[in-house]
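Structure in, sequence out. Go:
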């Protein structure tokens, strides 16, 4: 049996050798392997096209072993029990998204970076290059527990993945960076609004570690804060960014290092000039138009005054709707309410003009009735005398007014009329074609009193004088107010 197997093997070898010689070479294919027989030599294509080994299959265990993550307890800070670990911080402000006066807060997007040394993460490296990781390794090692004081809302960006970067150097130095958007409170003072400047601050502090365990500091001083040159706001001009640091004390836990990102904003005034100040000024000037309208045009002057008052009320309501309900007076409130008072006084001015006009008309009517009831001619019999000639028994209204209030004395007839009356035998004289009336003041003291009283009541009783003086007093007072206002707040 063994001899038979050997014989068959020798026969197969001779057959294969003959085919190789006849055809030169022959290729046989099997699943997964290609063999080539040429000149009696067997080659494998898998050995010719061999790929390098996949390094990533063994990278993770090597990295964890290199950083010794599993060999230490990273729930405790580096150098636990020893001096405070210094943690440097620098910030790059990407954008200042919004400033809200109503909520008194601001929203900022920034890159927050931490620098510290953890010897537990040191490793040997021939190239002295650092290794960079994403947020998955952050959960396995110790990182500073920095939070934003007075923060209302904040989040770490996670599109398309968590925006977290961890870089470890061979000597154990660590760079931890993350991209954060935070909305924080800002105590704003609106006493000079909208001519104000606001200073807000973003505060960073360790939540658990006091200054005995962790010392936060700005890594490069004032240069630790950098901003994008394209940062801009619609209502504010960003004047400057700067950094400060202080100690914060909590009665129950102790002292903590606190870092401040301070920035100063100055409000753009041109927007409020167009939306608030110019409309209010125009309404005040429009209310002065009524001083040039005839006092008898009641509908025109009343409708103009009411329209300006309602418009000023609308402007005041619109400004206050976009502002927080503060308990103090703002600069814009002073301007708007003074403008409202000017508009309201113009309405009261016409009310006074209309009332005094009615009183004066009533007085003149009574004087005309009194003059008609008096008999003419009359004399008032003293010193200064003025003569009025009334033709055909008619006389003007002004003449009638001048007769009111005087005593009536019989007037001696002229000599010609006396002689004519004597010749007629004492009969009733014919009505003369004209009569001469002599009027004079009753006494010098009465004239002085009447003159003084007329001077005192001249402006009040003369409605045209009220409008005339209002045309000068109202604009002059408003211009004076504007000079004081803008000199104080600008």
């Amino acid at each position: 049996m063994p001899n038979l197997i050997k014989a068959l093997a020798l026969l197969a070898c001779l057959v294969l050798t003959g085919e190789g010689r006849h055809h030169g070479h022959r290729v046989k294919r099997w699943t997964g392997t290609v063999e080539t027989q040429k000149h009696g030599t067997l080659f494998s294509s898998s050995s010719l096209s061999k790929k390098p080994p996949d390094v990533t299959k063994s990278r993770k265990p090597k990295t964890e072993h290199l950083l010794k993550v599993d060999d230490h307890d990273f729930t405790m800070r580096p150098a636990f029990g020893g001096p405070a670990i210094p943690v440097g911080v620098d910030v790059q402000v990407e954008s200042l998204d919004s400033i809200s006066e109503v909520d008194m807060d601001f929203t900022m997007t920034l890159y927050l970076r931490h620098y510290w040394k953890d010897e537990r993460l040191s490793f040997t490296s021939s190239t002295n290059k650092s290794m960079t990781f994403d947020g998955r390794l952050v959960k396995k090692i110790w990182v500073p527990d920095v939070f934003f004081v007075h923060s209302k809302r904040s989040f770490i960006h996670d599109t398309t993945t968590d925006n977290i970067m961890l870089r470890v150097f061979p000597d154990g130095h660590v760079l931890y960076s993350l991209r954060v958007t935070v909305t924080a409170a800002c105590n704003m003072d609106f006493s000079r609004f909208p001519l104000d400047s606001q200073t807000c601050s973003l505060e960073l502090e360790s939540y658990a570690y006091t200054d005995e365990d962790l010392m936060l500091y700005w890594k490069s001083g004032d240069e630790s804060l950098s901003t994008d040159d394209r940062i801009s706001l619609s209502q504010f001009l960003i004047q400057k960014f700067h950094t400060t640091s202080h100690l914060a004390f909590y009665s129950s836990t102790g002292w903590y290092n606190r870092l401040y990102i301070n920035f100063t904003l100055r409000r753009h005034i041109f927007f409020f000039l167009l939306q608030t100040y110019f409309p209010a000024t125009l309404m005040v000037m429009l209310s002065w138009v009524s001083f040039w309208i005839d006092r008898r045009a009641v509908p025109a002057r009343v409708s103009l005054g009411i329209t300006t008052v309602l418009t000023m009320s609308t402007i005041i309501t619109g400004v206050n709707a976009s502002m927080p309900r503060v308990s103090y007076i703002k600069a814009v409130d002073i301007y708007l309410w003074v403008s409202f008072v000017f508009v309201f006084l113009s309405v009261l001015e016409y009310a006074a003009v209309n009332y005094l006009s009615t009183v004066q008309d009533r007085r003149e009517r009574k004087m005309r009735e009194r003059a008609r009831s008096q008999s003419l001619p009359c004399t008032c019999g003293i010193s200064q005398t003025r003569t009025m000639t009334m033709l055909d028994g008619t006389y003007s209204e002004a003449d009638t007014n001048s007769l009111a209030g005087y005593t009536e004395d019989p007037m001696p007839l002229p000599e010609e009329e006396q002689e004519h009356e004597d010749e007629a035998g004492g009969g009733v004289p014919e009505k003369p074609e004209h009569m001469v009336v002599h009027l004079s003041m009753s006494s010098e003291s009465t004239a002085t009193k009447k003159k003084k009283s007329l001077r005192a009541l001249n402006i009040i009783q003369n409605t045209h004088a009220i409008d005339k003086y209002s045309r000068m007093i109202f604009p002059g007072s408003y211009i004076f107010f504007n000079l004081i206002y803008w000199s104080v707040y600008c």
